[in-house]
Design a protein that fits this description.
Blueprint lengths: L1 E5 L10 H5 L4 E6 L12 H13 L3 E6 L5 H5 L4 H17 L4 E5 L10 E5 L5 E6 H6 L2 H10 L11 H4 L2 H9 L3 H21 L3 E5 L17 H10 L5 E6 H5 L6 H9 L4 E6 L1 E6 L2 E5 L10 H10 L5 E4 L17 H20 L4
Parallel strand pairs: 1-2, 1-12, 2-3, 3-4, 4-7, 7-8, 8-9, 9-12
Antiparallel strand pairs: 5-6, 6-11, 10-11
Helix pairs in contact: 4-9, 12-13, 13-14
The structure holds manganese (II) ion.
Amino acid sequence: MKMIIRWFSGGDDSVTLEQIRQIPGVSGVATMLSDIPVGEIWPQTRLEALRDEIHAAGLELEVIESVNIHEDIKKGLPSRDKYIKNYCKTIENLSKIGVKCLCYNFMPVMDWARSNLAYTLEDGSTAMAYDHDEILKMNPSMIAEKMLSDSKGYSLPGWEPERLKLMSADIDFYQNMTMEQYWENLKYFLDAVIPYAEKYDIKMAIHPDDPPFSIYGLPKTINNVENIRKFLSLNSSPYNGLTLCAGSLGADMNNDVPAIVSEFASTGRVYFAHIRNIKHLEEKVFTETAHLSTCGDLDMFKVVKAFHDNGFDGYIRSDHGRMIWGEQARPGYGLYDRAIGANYLLGLWEAIDKSSPKK
Ligand SMILES: [Mn+2]
């Protein structure tokens, strides 16, 4: 297991590589080139410069999060083949800088969503929060406007301005698409891309839908145990796998997160873990919290033990943190709370590992 931290390149992060290097037990970062328009090839020279910058700070670059998927691929339009070809070329370029794992998602139109990026918790810290009724009261452009104005000037991955312009038309488009058609579009993408992932030895790790239930009638795929089984069976290559995000899946109260981790980690097809905690106020209403089990609904001991005991040897990152100690940072991605979270998770891992009977 390798503990890493998400970092935004190109001066788009308040957290520096030097700071990340000083978090005990953190060996690398998950990052991306956020200025490349979705659908275009990531240039080799830019990737080499990114790798060199990260290596110079004493950190590894083995995980990319994310190379986003062009909407035409999700819609199944004829133009998808051009974008899939570009995606495969990006995979080739990523292999040349030593990337081993590629996180992506297949969420239509709006990627992740929250109704509040700075909800005040009892202790005075702030965290991202979700209230389904609040979301439904707003139209998509109001959500986009609110999220971007709350983001303190940082880009929000998945909420790129060029994507937002088309939002309403895209939502309309999906109203006429069946779930089966959407699954077929996902399979078409996998069948085209996975052979390149195999050739270039990069594990494709899909991220669950966040939140894991439908907004505005949009299709959802990676959101519960049955659908994850279905996803893995669409293409049985060991290069077709998962980013298992505890917080995203945990947002559906019906999901038993430790059981989901156990089932899929034991197949060897989980390559990347996002671990954070959330607390439900009611169904489809939750706040993100500190990682500690007692701060939220997820039992982190059980979650980490499920990864450990099923032979997980991929990457873990402490996911979204709260904003604490006056830090000014991109919502969810400050230094302090994620560093605390990473060391809590490392502590759990060490305790579980040292108390496990040696095989
Ligand atoms: Mn996640």
